Amino acid sequence: MIAGVRALLVSLALATGLATAGVFAPPNQVDSVRAYALPTGRTEIRIELARQPDSIDSYRILAPDPKVVLDIPGARRHASQRRVEYVDGVVDKLSLHQHERGVRVVVDLEIAAGYRAFIEGSGVTILVQPAHGLAGL
Questions:
Q1: C-alpha span between 125 and 137 (Å, rounded)
Q2: Distance between CA 15 and CA 12 in Å, rounded?
């Protein structure tokens, strides 16, 4: 009986296009987070996922402590992925938080900085630039 109901639901999902829209797809898993300084003075943060995210939302907080916040809707982090300590004079640390909509990446900054976040392949790249070099972003 349950198998029959499940088969009916799958058939309905295929007929209505829900299955191809990702409704039955597993959550997009964060595979790794890396941060490193570039020779240009920027810091690059790379968040690799199991597959390309559909979208990202990001914003900058200036006070009381400067930070960049990036949301990846529908993503999940491993239980062990919580904080990445990284100090380069611009980025203090990175932390990943699970919330009801997905994964939130918080980049705590040592100084005011500009940033650019974009989807690239199966992940997200955040470029952080000290305020004195914002024209290059």
A1: 13
A2: 5
Q: Where are the beta strands (DSSP E) in 10-90?
A: 28-37, 43-49, 57-61, 67-73, 75-76, 83-85
Give how far Cα 130 sits from Cα of 49, 70, 84, 91, Å: 27, 18, 20, 9
Task: Write the pLDDT tens digit of every residue in 93-119.
Answer: 899 999 889 999 999 998 888 999 999
Cα–Cα distance measured from residue 102 to residue 116, given in angstroms and rounded to the nearest whole number: 20
CA–CA separation, 93 and 84 (whole Å):
6
Q: Which residue type, as a one-letter code, is found at position 123?
A: G
pLDDT in tens, 20-75: 444 566 789 999 888 888 888 899 999 999 999 999 999 988 888 899 999 999 99
